[in-house]
Amino acid sequence: MPWKNQGGGPWGSGPKGPWGSGPQSPGPRPPDLEDLLRRGQDKLQTMLPGGNFSGVGIALVLVAALAVWGLSGFFRVQSEELGVVLRFGKHVRTVQPGLNYHLPYPIETVLLPKALRVSTLSIGMRVVDDSRRGGGTTIRDVPEESLMLTGDENIVDVDFTVLWRIKPDGVGDFLFNIQNPEGTVKAVAESAMRDVIGRSQIQPILTGARTQTEAAVLELMQKTLDSYGSGILIQQVQMQKVDPPQQVIDAFRDVQAARADFERLQNEAQTYANRIVPDARGRAAQILQVAEGYKEQAVAEAKGQSARFLKVYEEYKKAPDVTRQRLYLETMERVLGNSDKLVLDQGVNGSGPGVVPYLPLNEIGRRATPAAPQQGGSNR
Hints:
Blueprint: E1 8-9, E2 12-13, E3 16-17, E4 20-21, H1 33-47, H2 55-71, E5 74-77, E6 83-87, E7 90-95, E8 98-101, E9 108-111, E10 119-123, E11 125-130, E12 136-141, H3 143-146, E13 147-149, E14 155-166, H4 171-176, H5 181-198, H6 202-206, H7 210-228, E15 232-243, H8 249-318, H9 320-336, H10 361-367
Antiparallel strand pairs: 1-2, 3-4, 5-8, 6-7, 6-9, 10-14, 11-12, 13-14, 14-15
């Protein structure tokens, strides 16, 4: 039995085929193709001079068709685009933004990629619209992309963005060497970040090694994409958030606070040492200098005394009595020169004191205080 006469075929019940209802199905009939061709021919004849297909009419139709076909080669390239002209499917040239022309189809065609636009790709997070906040946006974390293992076997949550664009001289590679550019950039970025994080320690990543990590990821991404011949240029890698996993983030923050306190106390101790040690060294140097000066002074005095003794001894050998008397007088002058003295003369042959009594009345008058006059008395 033919398929159109079956009661229940794969296209439902009734005499139907794969393109719809059969000739016996109710409903409006489709337009007749021959009737449409006849009407188009009649309209064309009315437009031609003479009302029939003469040689002039055919020439005019051909000229008009050629003009329309030639004008179809004009195209406009927008400010963020580059025009890639293909001749029978082969890349022949690249044109800049503006009005340009290529040979009409099917000789040449044009592709218009967004080659001058910088695209942003977020990994580990998604920006979604939040209707509950009046049309605002919120950031949703994607743990399967952001959780990574460090070189010291710790887990870190890394959210980062990649800024990329098409190389000016690599538009052809971008169009013909990769099928899904954004997916390729995302896969390469995630792989490069995991590679760099897997060779690093967690503490530098959380503190001060972000710049080095970003530079290493950018270099690895560019090297991988160039090996693919993708025609993509990575402009920047920005690490947005680098934190431990949410389950242990409080403990990590406590450790960081303790480490910060340790570094602060260590810096204070080092500052105190830097202040005390130079001071102690200065005092030690001062004591050494004073001792050295005392040593030199003592040695010089000893040498002077020795030289003086030698000189006196030479004089003593020449005149012992005179020298002995001189030494006695100098010694007594040095001993009694600064002391209060009282000399008593015993007189001639000890016959009696030869001291003349002396009363310093002037000094006594200056030192005495005048007495206050007595009240009620009389002066005599």
